[in-house]
């Protein structure tokens, strides 16, 4: 593109003078070997899961389609879809955001403590546990036995991350469900209860 003369041409030239033409390189944002000013271009930006990071910027001719990039890989989440339509783009700038879903079940960690003892022997055990998740925990359940996810609905719902008054040795199952519907199954073994009579506290 012509940018002017060097030096600038005076309004009135009274003697012989030499002027050199100055040119600037034409921009070609869409790399099609045609100068941008000769085309009607729009820009499409694709964002990552955080809705802030731009993972692809594309300059296309108005009315054409953008090309979806490879979505970000995010631990614990799966890409679902692009939320905006990026075909036949006519707006000057289009922001396209991604939808992800949580595919990782909550993580449960537990600890067993024996209590209510007599002469070094124990009547009861207590299970304390923590639950962490990507999107939030919606429900926790508990039952005696070595159970699996099919037993979730039959287990007893509990409101705190602690089970008191256990009076029998064996395997106990903690279920944790997150806001996305993923369920984790955590097994805890209780051993060391040697006395058969004790105080059982309500869950």
Offer a few descriptive terms.
mainly beta, 14 strands, rod-shaped, 203 residues, disordered C terminus, single chain, three-stranded mixed β-sheet, four-stranded antiparallel β-sheet
Task: Describe the protein's architecture and organization.
The structure is a single chain. The protein is mainly β and 203 residues long. The protein is 0% helix and 47% strand. The chain contains no helices and 14 strands. It has strands at residues 2-6, 20-23, 41-47, 54-61, 77-82, 93-96, 98-102, 107-118, 121-132, 137-144, 156-158, 162-166, 170-178, 183-190. The strands form five sheets. Strands 11-10-13-14 form a four-stranded antiparallel sheet, with no helix packed on it. A three-stranded mixed sheet has the order 4-3-6, with no helix packed on it. It is rod-shaped, with a radius of gyration of 34 Å. Residues 198-203 have low confidence and may be disordered.
What is the CA-CA span between the terminal residues? 80 Å
Mean pLDDT: 88
Task: Give the spatial strand order of the biggest sheet.
Answer: 11-10-13-14
Described by strand count, sense and barrel closure, the largest sheet is: 4 strands, antiparallel
Q: Strand share of the residues?
A: over 45%
Assign a percent range to the helix content. under 10%
What does the radius of gyration come to? 34 Å
Order of helices and strands: EEEEEEEEEEEEEE
Give the low-pLDDT segments. Answer: 198-203
What would you call the shape? rod-shaped
């Amino acid at each position: 593109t012509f940018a002017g003369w060097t030096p600038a041409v005076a309004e009135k030239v009274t003697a012989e003078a030499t002027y050199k033409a100055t040119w600037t390189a034409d921009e070609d944002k869409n790399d099609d070997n045609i100068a941008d000013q000769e085309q009607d271009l729009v820009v499409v930006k694709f964002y990552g899961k955080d809705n802030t990071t731009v993972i692809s910027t594309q300059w296309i001719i108005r009315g054409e389609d953008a090309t979806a990039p490879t979505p970000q890989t995010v631990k614990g989440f799966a890409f679902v879809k692009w939320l905006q339509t990026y075909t036949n783009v006519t707006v000057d700038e289009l922001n396209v955001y991604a939808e992800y879903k949580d595919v990782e079940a909550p993580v449960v960690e537990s600890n067993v403590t024996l209590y209510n003892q007599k002469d070094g022997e124990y009547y009861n055990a207590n299970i304390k546990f923590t639950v962490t998740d990507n999107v939030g925990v919606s429900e926790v359940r508990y039952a005696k036995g070595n159970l699996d996810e099919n037993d979730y609905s039959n287990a007893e719902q509990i409101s705190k991350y602690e089970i008191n008054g256990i009076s029998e040795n064996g395997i106990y199952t903690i279920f944790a469900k997150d806001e996305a519907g993923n369920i984790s199954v955590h097994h805890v073994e209780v051993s060391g209860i040697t006395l058969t009579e004790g105080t059982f506290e309500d869950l």
